[in-house]
Design a protein that fits this description.
mainly beta; five-stranded antiparallel β-sheet; 29 strands; 2 helices; four-stranded antiparallel β-sheet
């Protein structure tokens, strides 16, 4: 073969490879593109979404967003009331208060959800007659019904919920629990048999214990102190309503008398179970733990069993991990080393991307938000957001806690980058 023919052969091969690469690139879903953040709340009061991250805050017609309003900035609420209302995004982002609640915090807010089976109806936690409860309310008419247990997660169809002991949680994580005697914290029992994960029928109000703290005792690290406490927290229901993910955590002592978690070590074990509490499964080996997580949109049966989780991958580095229930041994990292942080991870509505927003760095006090395309693990920045000093307290921090609007055309988050705690949105379009 002549040198010229070898060159032609090489050139044709290069063109073929280039064509394949171009085809593969064209087949990859384009990254979403975001507009600049726009506040939908304003001072003089602080505002933030009325639920934990990833939870839908928009009404079924996409007009109203559930928001809390407070003047408390950097202290624990400790039972002080907070205003709950909606932002009317079709009327100048007007804030419309409709009730108050004494069971809230800066992390999970009041765990407010829209109930799609009743028009203009929401559910949120509150303290009524000395008890922690959940309130089903038509926010326009104020007609309400009391459920005798606070909710920690609500199914997609709004017919049932999960509940936990928020008084016990307050003794172990004051920034997530509720102050007061609204529930019996059972603080003298390390692994109580009558406390743990509850299932709540939101139509009838029936409450049933489905997984006790004692039931997982043999599957979690030993608690060596008689003053220790095991508890269940951080619950989320799969999009098809068939499964639950939850954490069993334990400490060697409660937070009473402990200042800002100093000297306290948590043992965390991640579990899934069926919606009725059966088939309890460990997700990861000892040492992996888990912190933030979400179920994938149920676009297929396998997708409905798949989750994105932040955990200590192979007991070495904290990062973003995807796994499927029933295939836990195939868990795999998502993204590259830029995703090696504990992020509030959420899927896009089409399941093609995940994003994670982390805690602020200690040098510039910026929160970094990144997005991963799952098809090729490509990583892009969503944005960086400054945290003023008044909002750096660990109990009262302002995590971004993003969540998608139901149509996938807008994403919302909490932020303090403009000086106060407010709710922001970014419009979304398909990018490149």
């Amino acid at each position: 073969m002549t040198s010229s023919s070898r060159f032609i052969s090489f050139a044709l091969s290069a063109l073929a490879v280039g064509a394949v690469c171009a085809a593969e690139s064209a087949a990859l879903p384009p990254f979403p593109e975001f507009t600049a953040p726009r506040a939908i709340t304003k001072g003089p009061h602080d505002h933030f979404f009325a639920s934990y991250f990833a939870i839908n805050s928009w009404s079924p017609d996409l007009r109203y967003a559930l928001v809390l309003e407070t003047d408390i900035k950097n202290t624990l609420p400790d039972g002080r009331p907070c205003t709950i209302g909606v932002v009317d995004t079709q009327d100048g982002d007007k804030f419309i208060p409709f009730s108050t609640t004494r069971t809230w915090n800066f992390q999970e807010a009041a765990m407010a959800f829209w109930l799609p089976w009743a028009k203009d109806t929401v559910i949120f936690n509150d303290l009524r007659d000395g008890k922690f409860v959940s309130v089903v309310m038509n926010w326009k008419t104020k007609e309400e019904r009391i459920i005798p247990y606070p909710v920690s997660a609500v199914s997609e169809d709004g017919t049932w919920a999960l509940g936990i002991n928020y008084a016990r949680l307050f003794l172990t994580r004051p920034d997530y629990g509720y102050y007061g005697d609204g529930q019996d914290p059972k603080k003298d029992v390390v692994f109580p048999e009558d406390d743990g994960l509850f299932r709540i029928d939101l139509k009838t109000g029936e409450v049933k214990l489905i997984v006790s703290c004692a039931a997982v005792k043999g599957m979690v690290p030993e608690v060596k102190s008689a003053n220790g406490m095991s508890y269940i927290c951080h619950t989320v229901i799969s999009k098809d309503g068939k499964r639950v993910y939850f954490l069993s955590r334990s400490v060697e002592q409660s937070m009473e008398g402990v200042k800002k978690f100093k000297g306290v070590n948590w043992h965390t074990t991640a579990f899934t179970c069926n919606a009725d509490g059966t088939n309890v499964r460990r997700c990861f080996p000892d040492g992996w733990g888990s912190s933030h997580f979400n179920w994938k949109p149920a676009l297929s049966e396998r997708d409905a069993r798949t989750m994105i989780v932040t955990c200590k991958w192979q007991n070495r580095i904290y990062t973003h991990v995807e796994f499927t229930v029933g295939e836990e041994e195939k868990a795999h990292r998502v993204g590259d080393d830029r995703m090696n942080f504990d992020g509030h991870c959420i899927y896009t509505m089409d399941g093609n991307f995940i994003s994670g927003d982390g805690y602020f760095d200690k040098k510039y006090f910026m929160r970094h938000w990144k997005m991963v395309r799952l098809a090729d693990n490509a990583v892009r920045d969503v944005g960086d957001f400054f945290v003023p000093e008044i909002y750096r307290d660990i109990y009262c921090r302002c995590d971004l806690h993003p969540r998608w609007r139901l149509d996938g055309k807008q994403i919302g988050f909490n932020s303090v980058h403009e000086g106060t705690r407010q709710v922001y949105v970014m419009d979304v379009k398909t990018g490149k």
